[in-house]
Specification:
The complex is a heterodimer of chains A (about 110) and B (about 280). With about 110 residues, chain A is an all-alpha fold. Chain A has helices spanning about 1-25, 30-60, 65-80, 90-110. In chain A, α3 runs antiparallel to α4. With about 280 residues, chain B is of the alpha/beta class. Chain B has a single domain, classed as Alpha/Beta hydrolase fold, catalytic domain (Rossmann fold, 3-Layer(aba) Sandwich). Helices cover about 40% and strands about 15% of the residues of chain B. Chain B has a seven-stranded mixed beta sheet with strand order 1-3-2-4-5-8-9, sandwiched between helices. In chain B, β8 (about 205-210), α8 (about 220-225) and β9 form a beta-alpha-beta unit. Classes of the chains: A mainly alpha (about 110), B alpha/beta (about 280).
Chain lengths: ~110, ~280
């Protein structure tokens, strides 16, 4: 479970970093195939973040921890549901905050 | 630059109209040859640019599937007042819209011609990581990504492909990639259409290529299996990809479409003469 928590935090951080990198560098490239391949990598980080989070929330003890981790894990879908093109930057920021909160939350439980 | 076209017989001889819908990120340009063929057979033909596909490229990112359905419904209702028979046909997203019209106006639509129906994105051209697409579509990732229009551009015929490639580079025939937001809307529309397939009772001709690079024959099979129409035909093409109206079997598709329309509202012999003299 310890390793899973580490991987969960790692995937969350990698997702945030890779999206920032995409926004500042990759999205400006002309090569759509390169962008496409890079975003598949970003999607993989998000997929792993969700899967690790759901797995931890299934097997971890403590209802509060499990519930909160479950909500954090499905947050990309909730945010995605309400997001729109015009407010994409705002929703991206919200997603970043939620992921950073979740990583801090797991880290707090880990060192406690 | 508007690519809309209306091919109307000047002497009002046609009592039959065919309403055509183009594909996702395409334009009425891709229907031009098909439209001209139908016009020469004596039908009035209408093809307009769908919402989000006009001059402003940014509109494709904000368009909703309901914009497409409202537009298609409005156009059909308008033609239905003017003509005795109205057929609907389309390619890719256009085929899904034609099905939507068939479901909504089940008693008014004379027939549906569904070409390369795109209910699922599961063609062989999609990259190995396309399994991540549902995740990307349901999250913010759909705003970061445009699926690139790439080889073979839906066309098996190499000469035609080279021409389309040049036109695409100029931006004359459509967009160079598929924004995920528009794919998201297409798949939402597909869900609605699949749910209501039982409502459609009009005769239907489904044409789909076995080697469609964008969407497999699964989409066509789902339509054929679930539609309530008793008069239905499913034709599989073996020498084309997605853009069946430009590929090796285009003449076959044109002729089959004409045959289908004629068999469901035959043109009288005197009308045919009129068409020839015209």
């Amino acid at each position: 479970m310890f390793a899973l928590k580490i991987l969960y935090m790692l995937c969350g951080i990698l997702y945030v970093i890779s999206v920032i990198f995409h926004k500042t560098y990759f999205s400006k490239l002309k090569d759509n195939v390169k962008i496409s391949n890079y975003l598949a990598l970003v999607a993989s980080f998000l997929l792993l973040y969700i899967l690790f989070g759901l797995t931890i929330s299934l097997f971890e003890k403590g209802l509060f921890f499990r519930t909160l981790l479950f909500i954090f894990s499905i947050s990309p879908f909730i945010i995605g549901k309400f997001a729109n093109y015009e407010k994409e930057k705002l929703f991206t920021l919200i997603q970043f905050i939620v992921i950073i909160l979740s990583v801090t939350f797991v880290l707090f439980y880990l060192v406690r | 630059m508007s690519l809309d076209f209306e091919l109307i017989h000047e002497d009002n001889s046609s009592k039959t109209a065919v309403l055509l819908f183009h594909g996702l990120t395409g334009s009425p340009f891709e229907l031009k040859k098909y439209g001209l063929h139908l016009f020469k057979q004596g039908f009035d033909v209408y093809a307009d640019c769908l919402p989000g596909h006009g001059d402003k490229v940014s509109e494709i990112y904000t368009v909703k599937y309901t914009d497409w359905t409202d537009f298609a419904s409005g156009k059909f209702a308008e033609l239905n007042k003017k003509y005795e028979n109205v057929f609907v046909s389309g390619l890719c997203l256009g085929a899904v819209l034609a099905l939507y019209i068939g479901e909504k106006y089940k008693n008014e639509v004379k027939g549906i011609i569904s070409l390369s129906t795109t209910l699922y994105l599961d063609g062989w051209r999609l990259p190995f990581y396309s399994f991540l697409m549902p995740l990307a579509l349901s999250t913010l990732l759909r705003f970061y990504y445009n699926y690139p229009e790439c080889e073979p551009h839906g066309i098996k015929n190499e000469k035609t492909r080279a021409v389309v490639k040049k036109l695409l580079a100029k931006g004359d025939v459509g967009m160079n990639d598929f924004p995920m937001t528009s794919i998201y809307e297409l798949l939402k529309l597909s869900k609605v259409v699949i749910r209501d397939l039982k409502d459609a009772v009009s005769p239907i001709l489904i044409i789909h290529s076995k080697d469609d690079d964008l969407t497999s024959t699964r989409s066509a099979k789902v339509v054929y299996k679930n539609i309530s129409s008793t008069d239905k035909e499913f034709i599989t093409l073996y020498d084309s990809y997605h853009m069946v109206l430009y590929d090796n079997e285009k003449e076959f598709v044109f002729n089959k479409s004409t045959e289908f329309i004629n068999s469901h509202c035959p043109i009288k012999s005197e009308d045919k003469e009129l068409v020839c003299s015209h």
